[in-house]
Design a protein that fits this description.
Layout: H1 8-17, E1 19-21, H2 30-38, E2 42-45, H3 53-66, E3 71-74, H4 95-101, H5 104-120, E4 125-126, H6 151-167, E5 171-177, E6 193-194, H7 198-205, H8 207-214, E7 219-222, E8 226-227, H9 240-250, E9 256-259, H10 265-268, H11 273-283, E10 288-290, H12 297-312, H13 318-340, H14 365-373, E11 375-377, E12 388-392, H15 409-415, E13 420-424, H16 430-437, E14 442-446, H17 453-465, E15 470-473, E16 486-488, H18 494-504
Parallel strand pairs: 1-10, 2-3, 3-4, 4-5, 5-7, 6-8, 7-9, 12-13, 12-14, 14-15, 15-16
Antiparallel strand pairs: 11-16
Length: 508
């Protein structure tokens, strides 16, 4: 048994310090405030915790009454994955759109503006950017969250994003190490496996993370994936070879290592969250993200007690837990110092509306970027009369969620009053869409049509009868372009829908 050098209270505080839990509600519950007082150093926010910028600013201020240097984390990638604007759609295009433009200055500017809006609301740690190389076009969970399939492109934009975000005083958390792009399984549901050789992994998956580390990324998020060439037995989150040997020692990363959600099935259904958390910290993890699904006090206490027990029983070295807690506190100290600084690193514009505010020079940068990302195949005959918009909706993955609206119908309706629209699922046939459209021009909106045979079949059926149908692809632009015209937006953020609507109406 390990000989304890810390008091029981210190051990408990360290165990709480390495947790990044979520909670329900738009104000902090009493149990969360109490645990912050006992040593909890981080919280994670999700869409359910946010109703307005003013409310979010009040929430983070409430947390800082208990602990001024608390890490307030959020999963705000922009694009399809937004928590700030979960009910309206993001004011910023996501990585795929930025990668398609391939202007690193634009990516840096977008990330800075997004970071400014987070900082304005009191958020100081963003679980972004995704540095995954989307080498499998059928990937069910990464897709438009990636800058693209070219490692060099992903590397330069990952670095630019890290620089832009952190220049606004918000710590970046580059994910999903060592790379989730070559998977056909969503780790929310099961454990993905990548079986390529080590040379490929180093040249492809790891390249963007090297760039992020060089750019100074304050944290890195591990992936719940098994990479047989690196560790044939344990997923990356639980692997000392990958987290300590590769990330710490070989790549030289000295910042905070955070897990992806520990309650995701890739870990929870194979190891359980308590055992998974202990193995993760032992492998080199510094912070356990939990709360996307399990967001209650009982979960926090279960994980706290599992870590304390593991130390007392000699399974987890006490110095490893203490080191992890120290890294959490070091990042918290950085955010506190940056918040108090002047210049570009300082949080500003307290209470700024996510969709409208931020820095004066950054206003509208999201729409500018979305417009630049649009790609048109064929000739646009501008819509003069209100069309019928048929949106074909696949089942959303958990990271994106189904709360956030997407498409072009609302934006077209603003430009062409009287626009009619409907959303269809996999049970639909072309005849039903054609009947609903009547004589109106059809705008068919799809998302990753190459991954959904039902969607492609319905689209083919519509085009066979109505070849003048305009097709808007708002996912990965991989399928052969069809429609008159075909418009690719490289993402489904609200601003991407606006850019497509402007193109369709000749107002671009």
């Amino acid at each position: 048994m390990t000989t304890l050098t810390h008091s029981s209270d210190t051990l408990t505080r360290d165990a709480l310090a390495v947790l990044q839990p979520g909670f329900h509600g738009t104000t902090a519950p009493d149990w969360l405030l109490r645990r912050i007082g006992e040593g909890l150093a981080s919280v994670g926010l999700f869409g359910r915790n946010i109703s307005s910028p003013a409310q979010l600013a009040a929430l983070t201020a409430q947390l800082r009454v208990e602990r001024d240097d608390i890490l307030v984390a959020i999963d705000e990638e922009g694009g399809d994955v937004t928590r700030l604007e979960v009910r309206d759609g993001s004011s910023f295009p996501g990585n795929y759109a930025l990668g398609s433009v391939d202007d690193v200055d634009l990516t840096r500017a977008v990330a800075h503006e997004l970071g400014s809006r987070l900082a304005a609301c009191g958020v100081n740690l963003n679980w972004a950017p995704s540095a995954d190389v989307n080498s499998d076009v059928d990937n069910p969970v990464i897709g438009v969250r990636s800058f693209g399939a070219d490692p060099a492109l992903v590397s330069r934009h990952t670095a630019a994003y890290v620089e832009g975000l952190q220049s606004a005083g918000v710590a970046a958390c580059t994910k999903h190490f060592p790379g989730h792009g070559d998977t056909a399984v969503d780790s929310h549901h099961a454990l993905p496996r990548i079986d390529v050789d080590s040379d490929t992994l180093h040249a492809r998956e790891l390249a963007p993370f090297r760039s992020a580390i060089t750019a100074g990324s304050k944290s890195v998020m591990s992936a719940h994936i098994l990479l047989s060439a690196l560790d044939p037995n344990r997923p990356a989150t639980l692997s000392p070879r990958i987290l300590t040997g590769l990330l710490r020692e070989e790549l030289g990363f000295g910042g905070l290592i955070v897990t992806d959600g520990i309650e995701m099935q890739a870990i929870a259904s194979t190891y359980g969250i308590e055992r998974g958390s202990v193995l993760a910290v032992a492998a080199g993890v510094d912070a356990i993200c939990v709360g996307g699904g399990l967001a209650d006090e009982e979960t926090v206490l279960r994980l706290r007690d599992a870590l304390v027990t593991a130390v007392r029983e000699g399974e987890l070295p006490e110095e490893r837990l203490a080191d992890a807690a120290a890294r959490v506190r070091a990042l918290a100290d950085w955010t506190l110092r940056v918040r108090g600084a002047s210049g570009p690193g300082a949080a500003a514009q307290e209470g700024t509306a996510p969709g409208n505010g931020g820095s004066a020079e950054g206003a509208g940068i999201g729409l500018v970027a979305a417009r630049r990302a649009v790609r048109v195949t064929g000739t646009v005959e501008p819509l003069k009369e209100a069309p019928y918009v048929a949106s074909f909706a696949p089942v959303a993955n958990i990271a994106v969620g189904d709360e956030t609206p997407w498409g072009v119908a609302a934006e077209l309706a603003a430009l062409l009053p009287g626009t009619e629209a409907a959303t269809y699922g996999s049970e639909i046939g072309a005849a039903e869409v054609l009947a609903a459209a009547g004589e109106r021009r059809i705008v068919a909106v799809v998302r990753d049509v190459h991954r959904h045979s039902w969607m492609a079949a319905v689209l083919d059926g519509i085009l066979a009868v109505r070849p003048d149908t305009a097709v808007v692809e708002m996912g990965v632009n991989y399928a052969e372009p069809t429609g008159s015209p075909h418009i690719a937006t490289y993402g489904a953020a609200r601003v991407c829908g606006r850019a497509a609507a402007e193109t369709l109406t000749g107002r671009a």
